[in-house]
Amino acid sequence: MAESLTDYIDAELKEVLPNFNWKLVKDTKKNLIELYVTFRVDTEEEIQVQDSLGQNNDPGYVQFEDVVCFYDPAYSHVKPQNYLAAIALDEHTGLEKGYVDAFLRQLNLATKQGMVDLREFLLDDYAGEFELKWNERNLESFIKTMKDTNRYNEEKLTMMLDDEESLIEKLTKGDDNDGVERV
Predict the structure, then answer these.
(1) What is the CATH classification number for the domain harbouring 119?
(2) Measuring CA to CA, which residue among 100, 134, 115, 114 is closest to residue 16?
(3) Is residue 48 part of a domain?
(4) Three-state SS annotation for 77-97
(5) Domain range for residue 56?
(6) What is the secondary structure of 150-171 as a DSSP string?
(7) 44-53, 127-136, 152-161: lowest mean pLDDT where?
(8) Which of 14, 26, 27, 169 is the most buried (most CB within 10 A)?
(9) 56 and 50 Cβ atoms separated by less than 8 Å
(10) Surface-to-core class of residue 115, CB atoms within 10 Å of its CB (0-12 exposed, 13-18 middle, 19+ buried)
(11) Separation CA 79–CA 65 (nearest Å)
């Protein structure tokens, strides 16, 4: 059985120990996977930053969050501009592990640079808004280097968005007990 995209990303991030915290959300109704990344930058107590919802940061630090999305455009209605990166893929054929490895390296690089940029942003009294920057050329460069050094894995990872069976479905499945659980 093929490995799922969410399981692979989770395992790789646990192994790499990136400079950010993450949460994977598999949305079966919208046919997409979102990877939330968040990091914290310590700052002076008196620096106040307001987020897009109008809430101020807690004194002493700023918590930043962004999202990347993996989706199948045949089923999902995603606005790529709402994400740090939105990766379109065929849900059934999936993505190559090598691409996902390069993607995670680029994500780690983007968040490291984002921490530096956020610190500079906090020191600039005239800065308007802050956002992470995604560098597609870096991603392509990572992929090329991996292929040139024979470290690019072409094994496919699928989204595997099917809902898990409910307890009732598990109990009523099969002909062994005529769909009835016997105790």
Answers:
(1) 3.40.50.11250
(2) 100
(3) yes
(4) CCCHHHCCEEEECCCCCCEEH
(5) 5-163
(6) T-----EEB---PPPPPHHHHH
(7) 44-53
(8) 26
(9) yes
(10) middle
(11) 18
Global pTM? 0.84
* Residue tagged 């090598």 (tokens): 98
Tell me the C-alpha distance between 135 and 142, whole Å: 11
79 — pLDDT class (breaks 50, 70, 90)? very high
Q: How many domains does the chain have?
A: 1
Distance in angstroms (rounded) separating the CA atoms of residues 38 and 141: 25
Q: Within 13 Å and on the Cβ side, how many CA atoms surround 175?
A: 0
Residues 6+ apart with CB under 8 A from 89: 70, 71, 72, 95, 159
Is 176 a domain residue? no
Q: Each residue of 33-64: pLDDT tens digit?
A: 999 999 999 999 988 888 888 888 899 999 99
